[in-house]
Amino acid sequence: MFGRGRPGASRGLGRLLPLLLLLLGGAAGRIHRLVLTGEKRADIHLNTFGFYTNGSLEVNMSRLHLGLGSAKQEKPWVGFSLSRTRIREALSYPGKESHNCTLEQNGAEPRILFLIDVIKKRVQVRKLGEPKKLQIYSGLIPEVQNGGSDPKPADDNKDQAAANKGTEAQQEAPGKGPEKTEGEAKQRDSSHKVKDLVLDLGSVNDSYNFSFHVVIGSEAEGLYNLNFHNCHNKAPANQMPYDITVMIREKNPDGYLSAAEIPLIKLYLVMSACFLVAATVWVYFLCQHKFSVFKIHWLMAALAYTKALSLLFHSINYYFINTEGHPIESLAVMYFVTHLLKGALLFITIALIGTGWAFIKYILSDKEKKLFVIVIPLQVLANVAYIIIESSEEGSSDYASWKQILFLVDLLCCGAILFPVVWSIRHLQEASSTDGKAATNLAKLKLFRHYYVMVVCYIYFSRVIAILLKFTVPFQWQWLYELLVEVSTLVFFILTGYKFRPASNNPYLQLPQEDEEDEEELQMNQVVTEAGVHEGLSKLKKSRVAREAV
């Protein structure tokens, strides 16, 4: 069965390689470039990033072309919002039923709004909520500055730099001069508590552009969501297509990785070494007991080695993203290939062990074969969805759809691999009550019940507890999510190997021979005992009859 399936799997992998190269061609690591044409969404989540002190965010909107109806509106209902949050992607996908414009809300939630006014050719920067030490500047950071220090504003933007430091702000009002006194500014912006800034908006052939960068202060560390809003499209009946091209560069003092991603380089490297040691010990154990080794044991070894390679390439991938802002394509392809193989091998191995293949039987039933026909394509789809998610920008139109597909398919696969274990438990329960090998079947039943609990606990820790941990810990500790997933996977591998180890002293895999010998010995003892007892009773009965006759 499995020998005939390998050529098809290799052909499928060969077809996926061009897809990987095509997707990676658009991947930009932590330097994002999003190009949207004919877009109609009112709210677009651009990115989420965890900043440390002196971290920087650069945004360059090189092209924004609005529809005729949107361009003639007097209200600045188009712009960006930068908000601080504890939960990743809290504003990623705003509710479609809400018709409230985010750019007009004056709530207490801390956020910064960049209101694009195409009529007056300006971008109004408005700070809402409690003021934080966020320094906003016009333009991008000069190339000569690398990371840590605060950038100095250009000469033509000294008024904006002064406003960020608490001095008078430059403001413009319709029909009046561009400057206002400090008292008037405070009276107008009493609800915002921070005076508004004004950035220049460029225009070329009805296409608008501007750029800005933000430097994070010591009290402003946290997880930030960057979103784009076009409130003209809030009403479904008035949606007008628009085009936008935006470049986003996020950086911390130590590199391009987010605060929660910086420890992942060492974490993946250490866990790769742990899986490599576990796989090597497992292979050595198989070589020591080669006469009781099944094919499934070598499949388990291949899974452990593939997992180690996947983590190694993942660590290298993060290293180059941190130092250069983008991955090396060849190494990224190797990571995606090993990740795809690891995902397929994991679910195939768990399902095969659950069916009892090579342990209690050598032929799969029809319903078990149908299960593999369903699970393997689902795993391929899940890995393709993961590759597309990792290689595309968060603001792309199909990002949310692929993320939902990944969640749904992963949930289906986790539920599907439990069916073989349940079928094996049911089969052993029936066998223990019908045939004469009750002890053997009950021992195997105990083994598969333990394995069922192990699989459920692994799914629970890696899918439920880990996600809850990610949403509850502070932003800089969210790497604990990955730590819990990898540690639970390692523990699951070790326990599975121990339970199904190919050893002569394994109480589960060696029970059939021992039980048969015990049953034969017990039957012989019963035969001998019963024969001796009946023989004595027969002789005693005959002698008594003889005496009575005499």
Provide a brief overview of the structure.
With 550 residues, the protein is an alpha+beta fold. Helix content is 51%, strand content 17%. The strands form two sheets. Strands 1, 3, 7, 9, 10 and 12 form a six-stranded antiparallel sheet that branches. A six-stranded antiparallel sheet has the order 2-11-4-5-6-8.
Question: Keyphrases for this structure?
Answer:
6-stranded antiparallel β-sheet, elongated, 13 helices, disordered N terminus, alpha+beta, 12 strands, 550 residues
Question: Could you please describe the fold and organization of this structure?
Answer:
Mean pLDDT is 75; it is low at 1-13, 24-28, 90-97, 144-194, 511-520 and 522-547. The strands form two sheets. Strands 1, 3, 7, 9, 10 and 12 form a six-stranded antiparallel beta sheet that branches. Strands 2-11-4-5-6-8 form a six-stranded antiparallel beta sheet. 51% of the residues lie in helices and 17% in strands. The chain contains 13 helices and twelve strands. The chain is of the alpha+beta class and 550 residues long. Helix 1 packs antiparallel against helix 7 (329-355). The chain has helices spanning 2-25, 68-71, 158-164, 182-188, 264-288, 295-324, 329-355, 366-391, 399-416, 418-434, 438-472, 480-499, 511-549; strands at 31-39, 43-51, 56-65, 78-85, 111-117, 122-128, 134-138, 197-200, 202-204, 207-216, 222-230, 242-251. The N and C termini lie far apart (80 Å). It is elongated, with a radius of gyration of 34 Å. Strand 9 and strand 10 form a beta hairpin.
